[in-house]
Amino acid sequence: MREILLKGGLDMGTQCGGAMRRVAFLTASLLVGSTFLASTLFAETAELSVGQTIYVPAYSYVRIGERAHQFELAVNLCIRNTDTTRAITILSVDYHAANGRILKRYLDKPVELKSLASMDFYQEPSDISGGLAPSFIIKWKSVNRVSEPIAEAAMVGDRSGLGVSFMSVGKVIKDTPD
User: What is the pLDDT of residues 43-55, one digit of tens each?
Assistant: First the structure.
């Protein structure tokens, strides 16, 4: 195509090249500008709290296939202190069955979680006493207002070359007043 245009005395690559570069520059400028504007307008501010109760959903197994075979999962609960300067105190971590009954209390006493530190708890894949949809309830506090911790459950299982893994994120169900 370019050869034909050159023979006819019109080189579109040269004549349109400048215009195309200007359009590309304007498009890129608009994209960068709108991204900056959106990130400024919609940026999340850190939520500060002195304590909370967090609900973390989990799955001790999933059903797979036409016969709904039970695929057992290990549950890894992780609590992360997101505050960069202050510690928080984890008051309790309780494991509840799908019917709401407490099955296990992981802590005998409160535990300090230093800034940017994390702690984890493990539920065996063979322990399906919580039913399909158990949960964790985490209670924490701090002397000062701090950024909220992150609580997540990672469910992992493997059998016969098939691997399953997914995450669930905790939800604040109660905020401790100042």
Answer: 566 789 999 999 9
Cβ atoms of residues 135 and 103 within 8 Å? no
Give SS3 for 137: strand
Q: Are residues 58 and 153 in contact, defined by beta-carbon separation less than 8 angstroms?
A: yes
| Count of CA atoms in the C-beta half-sphere (13 A) of 136 | 30
Q: What is the CATH number of domain 50-175?
A: 2.60.290
Alpha carbon of 87 to those of 93, 141, 156: distances in Å?
A: 17, 9, 30
Q: Which candidate, 55, 80, 65, 78, places its Cα nearest to that of 134?
A: 55
Query: How many CB atoms sit inside 10 A of residue 98's CB?
Result: 15
Cα dihedral 58, 60, 65, 69, rounded to 10, equals -160
CA-based nearest residue to 75, from 141, 148, 164: 164
**Cα distance between the two ends of the chain:** 73
Is the pLDDT confidence value at 123 over 90?
yes
